[in-house]
Amino acid sequence: xxxxxxxxxxxxxxxxxxxxxxxxxxxxxxxxxxxxxxxxxxxxxxxxxxxxxxxxxxxxxxxxxxxxxxxxxxxxxxxxxxxxxxxxxxxxxxxxxxxxxxxxxxxxxxxxxxxxxxxxxxxxxxxxxxxxxxxxxxxxxxxxxxxxxxxxxxxxxxxxxxxxxxxxxxxxxxxxxxxxxxxxxxxxxxxxxxxxxxxxxxxxxxxxxxxxxxxxxxxxxxxxxxxxxxxxxxxxxxxxxxxxxxxxxxxxxx
Length: 254
Prior knowledge:
- By secondary structure, the chain is mainly alpha-helical.
- Helices cover 48% and strands 6% of the residues.
- It has eleven helices and four strands, in the order H-H-E-E-H-H-H-H-H-H-E-E-H-H-H.
- It has a two-stranded antiparallel sheet with strand order 1-2. The protein has a two-stranded antiparallel sheet with strand order 3-4.
- A hairpin with a 5-residue loop joins strand 1 and strand 2.
- It is globular, with a radius of gyration of 20 Å.
- 31% of the residues are buried.
- It holds the Pfam family PHD.
- InterPro entries: Alfin, Alfin_N, PHD_AL_plant, Zinc_finger_PHD-type_CS, Znf_FYVE_PHD, Znf_PHD, Znf_PHD-finger, Znf_RING/FYVE/PHD.
- Belongs to the Alfin family.
- Residues 198-250 form the PHD-type domain.
């Protein structure tokens, strides 16, 4: 919880790094760790809050007792709504409140350490470059569906009938997107590449990088860093149909 000591951010870059760490923790709770998060939000318990921590971890806990609190507090009583609506809607609701909390914490630090108009604007611009927790959790990040469909088709074309390769087909696509436009590509394909932009991890929301191993969920068709879902390239070779933690937990509760 917020009682754990963390360095207090004092510059725009430090506040942004604090924001990114807390955001990554919240996204883990609502995606790759969703089953554990769901179980901890027992409606029989007292008012519970979801905290994202600067070290990219998360925890469900009671709110702090001090008034006023040292930092703005996240939404209270998220566990009470868990069984009163579909799980997908509940997770989306928690995600929306988490986005609000992240912004309030970031601008609390800005106010506390006297950020002026220029610093506040720069902080917001840096934050705005990242997809919101809600966008990541709901899959509403722009272009994700188009990317997944293109990557899935590419995987099927390249497959030899055995287990599809888990090395992401995005690699050639990334090279294609950065290639000059005078290549012999169809107009439709060029337009599709222009719209797609960068692929984002369904767990942490960060962009794809050439030196990272990625894996695609065969159910929701979202892409994930292997490290975010604890899948190695060697392990992926033996998976016939990969289901991400979110899809696995949904099917287990059906």
